[in-house]
Write a structure and sequence with these properties.
Layout lengths: L7 H30 L11 E6 L5 E7 L24 H15 L9 H17 L1 E3 L9 E3 L1 H17 L23 H10 L37
Parallel strand pairs: 3-4
Antiparallel strand pairs: 1-2
Length: 235
């Protein structure tokens, strides 16, 4: 895209904006369903498949969101090719590369034996002290905001996500998306707390330009395609 003069950082910022706007209206409902049907919280993730189209001005539009995207090998059948030659090779490697990247981001491959968590908690403690916030057990008359144990863990995991992903890939909320607060409709207090945290003086506002692009120019993750073949490819 850079070869054609496209601002990739701006394009990915627009995609992040579009996907967030598409997800926020149903987030509370999804959370309710998770609490009802998923007994074990944490240590897992769900893959959502976004179908995105782009207009002539490079404005992305979410066409649909697939709750169970097909991540198996895709095979294209062409009538004039009776042997049904596989037109897309390496899909499984692409999927596995993306899956490995995701599980690393959420900490399933964390081999620090808790050191990363301790480091992130130290960051949170320093920031809370600067903001005048405190855990409920430590709250006093002059405490600006009391944080529950659950909210405290949310902040720690937010710092872990910041470290693993960086601003380019980190999911909502970030300071660059504080204008989306009305979409929370006061129904997602944990998300509002995180938004207040990242939009505060100790947050990440200084890492973004006004258009939502990341100042550091960090490229988004793109899984590499290789030329491996599998027995299933030979149809």
């Amino acid at each position: 895209m850079k070869k054609f003069g496209v601002n990739e950082q701006l394009y990915w910022a627009k995609i992040k904006e579009a996907t967030t706007k598409a997800m926020l209206p149903v987030t509370q409902r999804i959370s309710q369903q998770e609490q009802k049907f998923i007994s074990r919280r944490g240590g897992g993730f769900h893959v959502w498949g976004y179908d995105i189209a782009t207009d002539a001005d490079l404005n992305p539009m979410v066409l649909e969101i697939n709750a169970h995207p097909n991540t198996d090998l895709e095979i294209v059948k062409v009538d004039r090719e009776p042997d049904r030659i596989n037109m897309i090779r390496g899909d499984r490697d692409l999927v596995m590369g993306l899956t490995e990247h995701m599980v690393r981001l959420i900490g399933l491959f964390d081999q620090s034996e808790g050191a990363d968590h301790v480091e992130a908690e130290g960051v949170v403690k320093r920031k809370l002290a600067k903001l005048g916030w405190a855990k409920e057990a430590d709250c006093g008359y002059f405490t600006g905001r009391c944080i529950s144990n659950q909210n405290y863990e949310d902040l720690i995991h937010a710092e872990l996500e910041e470290k693993r992903r960086g601003p380019m890939e980190r999911s909502f909320p970030t300071c660059s998306q504080k204008h989306l607060r009305p979409m929370l409709m006061k129904q997602l207090p944990r998300s509002e707390l995180l938004l207040d945290y990242w939009a505060s003086e100790v947050g990440d506002c200084g890492e973004y330009n006004e258009d939502g692009t990341y100042k550091g120019g960090r490229d988004p993750f793109i899984s590499k395609q290789n030329k491996k073949r599998f027995s299933r490819d030979e149809l």
